[in-house]
Amino acid sequence: MNGGIGDRTAIVGIGATEFSKDSGRSELRLAVECIKAALDDCGLTPADVTGLAGFSMDTNLEIEVANNLGIPELTFFSRIEYGGGAGCGGVAQAALAVAGGAADVVVCYRALNERSGHRFGADISLQPVSGPMMALMAYGAPCGLMTAGQFAAMYASRYLHQYGRTTDDFGRVSVTFREHAANNPNAFFRDKPITLDDHRNSRLIAEPLRMLDCCQESDGGVALVITSAERAREMPRRPALIRAAAQGAATPQGAMTSFYRDDIATLPESGVVARKLYGSSGLGPKDIDAAIIYDHFTPYVLGQLEEFGFCGRGEAGDFVADGHLGLGGSLPTNTNGGQLGEAYIHGMNGIAEAVRLLRGESCNQVADIANIVVTSGAAVPTSGLILAAP
Amino acid sequence: MGVTTTGTASPGAAPADPALRARPQQTRDTVWWFDALREHRLLIQRCTGCGRLRHPVGPMCPACRSLDWDTVEASGRGSVHAFVVSHHPQLPGFDYPLVTALVDLEEGTRLLANVVGCDPSEVRIGSALRMEWLDIDAERAFPQFRLAAVPA
What we know:
Chain A has 390 residues and is α/β, with parallel strands linked by helices.
């Protein structure tokens, strides 16, 4: 450990609403429900919370969250741009705030009616994104390149070409995570595994991507409670130590629109995060026992595995085909079924799953988990964590 | 808000009206580039400090930090760097399946544009392209590309 925030803070509570396609209630209500559940999980109350962190894309203002939960005062609040890239970054900022004394207890939250409300599979202009983000997307508007699936497809087309791979590489990612989801009672796709043929025959969305390359659209909320490791020792649940936390962007950077880099079949912002996580923890890919890899679209799972050094460049398809991401593999990944299988809560449900793995409470528990890599939205300015058993 | 899509075009259906296409959000730094398209000029920003071409456009050269720039006009010749054949969801003003390419312009910058006038299965990474103009309305024109005959 070379200083910094390593092991000084922990995720001590997790909470979630049900995951559905139509929550039937407001995003603010989802937010306060999941935050209350996360506080209950660790024996704290809203009066203990002094910080809130998370996503600028979340429609729930921190002050409205505080107003409704009855959080008396906030000494730290921070929200991060770039959609799903924010997830682990919120935890990173919470950890910095706690380690630096800006707040004692910080809650990270994400609550959205992403299926029944503003669907993220649609034209990005229909989603709650900022003016500057829309200006960033301007070059795609006149030629109809305005959805996340299309942005991912552009990367995927170059990836396949550059490494001479086939879309079956994408399909095996989906098959693996749906197998995990099949055993998860909270997953939308519980008891619904798929085959590679199902993937091959699924509807074309944006070639080379098919429906089963795309994560779900979901309604729901997830919250995480972060406090000091010292305080965590007095709390009821086994803490997930924040061994390393990092954000990453790599110029020239877009938001799934990094089309102007020399090599667009890479995810250098994920590489920035990986180097920072490994560098600050002294760990390397061989020390990681399980992973939560952000799976908005299957091709980005491959690229992230490569950027984090779990396999070589262009080798992730073989790595997945060899079963490494499975429950019996060398790197059990997205044991909850991921966003392809469980739900799409901007990756926050994946962070919660990492905490469950460290507690020994996953629906697909694997033995001897000491260090877990968690990633956030890939291909946008992103973030990541190494969570560890105490 | 819900999803806004046009219906799936059936064979023989009338082509979509390009005037329905979303307008790009412009800023003080980008409006000149979009304005030039109206005059059928595809411009590439050039740093007058170091000569570097850049796209997307912006106020400062990231190589030499000069704020001074002029433009060069693109020839309209290029090739496919990567491409997407879009099926769903369908945005207003476009016909589907829709080919959108990341074009390597011969000047060295890249550009997002549609490839039209061919079966999508004919498009390959590396395919040579030639530019033409789509006049959307009195205020808007945009470059699009066709597959160019490649010398044998």
